[in-house]
Design a protein that fits this description.
Layout lengths: L8 E3 H8 L3 H10 L5 E3 L2 E5 H10 L9
Antiparallel strand pairs: 1-3, 2-3
Pfam families: HTH_17
Protein name: Helix-turn-helix domain-containing protein
InterPro entries: DNA-bd_dom_put_sf, HTH_17, SinI_DNA-bd
Length: 66
């Protein structure tokens, strides 16, 4: 299991850019608990691994839904 020294944290703006959503959507995901985050003062930092996990968990194969 990687330690905190190996962890990479992203800002809400960076997460929004990666996920191609608004910053408000990222805040909603964080507040609902769907996206884990660490609070530093008044701002949030999201582990990069959590962003990758969230994006891979919501991938849908549209060719099978027809």
């Amino acid at each position: 299991m990687p330690g905190l020294n190996d962890a990479r944290f992203l800002t809400v703006a960076e997460v929004a850019d990666i996920m191609r959503v608004s910053r408000m959507t990222v805040y909603r995901l964080v507040h609902s608990g769907d996206l884990p985050a660490v609070r530093f003062g008044r701002s949030f930092r999201v582990p990069a691994s959590a962003v990758q996990d969230a994006m891979s968990a919501h991938v849908v194969d549209v060719s099978r839904s027809a």
